[in-house]
Amino acid sequence: PGHCFDLVVSNASLHHWIDPLTAFSEIRRVSKQGGFCLIRDNLRLPPVFIPFISFIGQIKGMNNFQRSLWVNAIKASYTISEISNLLKRSALKNSRVSINPTFWDLNICCFI
């Protein structure tokens, strides 16, 4: 049913969504008026950062396969401008996009 959730959260999946605009519409549809949405995902970084990301993964104890997954997820993720442009065309009209520089991730916050 529509308008039944006070909070919608997505963590590290946005880069897998085939059609983010449809997903944003569905988030809007199921959210209660006065509700909140938080979407967190990786931030696509310039290719020059990829060796550094792999090195950080190694320091964190990731094996080669885990580091490869992380690097590929970052490569598949959105930039700030890409996600901002999508949100302008979406049903999530009160959205705010920010970057968490500590974790190099992208955060979308939206009050419904």
List keywords for this structure.
112 residues, alpha+beta, 29% strand, elongated
Detailed description of the structure:
It is a single chain. Helices cover 38% and strands 29% of the residues. It has 112 residues and is of the alpha+beta class. Helix 2 crosses helix 3. Strand 1, helix 1 and strand 2 form a beta-alpha-beta unit. The protein is elongated and about 45 Å long. The chain has a four-stranded mixed sheet with strand order 1-2-4-3. The mean pLDDT is 94. The chain starts with a strand and ends with a strand.
Helix-strand blueprint:
Elements: E1 5-11, H1 20-30, E2 31-42, H2 50-59, H3 64-76, H4 80-88, E3 95-100, E4 105-111
Parallel strand pairs: 1-2
Antiparallel strand pairs: 2-4, 3-4
